[in-house]
Amino acid sequence: MAGDSHSAERSVERTLGHLRALDSPSAQIPAQPLTLEDLYRQQRMRMVRLAILLVDDPATAEDVVQEAFTGLYRNWSGLRDAKAAIGYLRTAVVNGSRSVLRRRKTAREYQPPHQTDARSAESLAMLTSEHQAVVVALGQLPRRQREVLVLRYYGDLSEAEIADATGVSRGTVKSTASRGLEALQKLMGN
Length: 190
Description:
Blueprint: H1 2-23, H2 36-55, H3 58-75, H4 82-110, H5 121-125, H6 129-140, H7 143-154, H8 159-166, H9 170-188
Helix pairs in contact: 1-6, 1-7, 1-9, 2-3, 2-4, 3-4, 4-8, 7-9, 8-9
Domain RNA polymerase sigma-70 region: 39-105
Domain RNA polymerase sigma factor 70 region 4 type: 132-184
Family: Belongs to the sigma-70 factor family. ECF subfamily.
């Protein structure tokens, strides 16, 4: 079973690492202070991809990110530096995605469930079949497991940063990642 878990971890790491590399091959934060406009240009697409991986709908992801930047604008004067702004954005995107998923769940209780694949053809066409299988399996995981795996392997965050972004303890992050990788392994049939 430990070998299976490592296989799922390698698949997730390859897929989300591939997406991360496509999004920002060298997104370094400059030493000089950034303006909100600079931050928007540098981080917007990365935050949209993060939201897409969490909510599985490009239009909704755009809305979540726009709300995150609006919140950042309102709180801009209270931030310490650009790294704090990026952390604020990441947390706002995760929380906004959670809200979207809660609203979807509530809406499904009142309407018959239906399956739609909201991913754009372009985004899936850029991925190999193995990568596509990983993205599909991620979409089937419980919210917290998906969040932790996406933040770890796409966001390239440490356990402490994930704990901060999601509002859970580091131990919960570690156990959630482990359970998520096991669930992915089962979903992918490896």
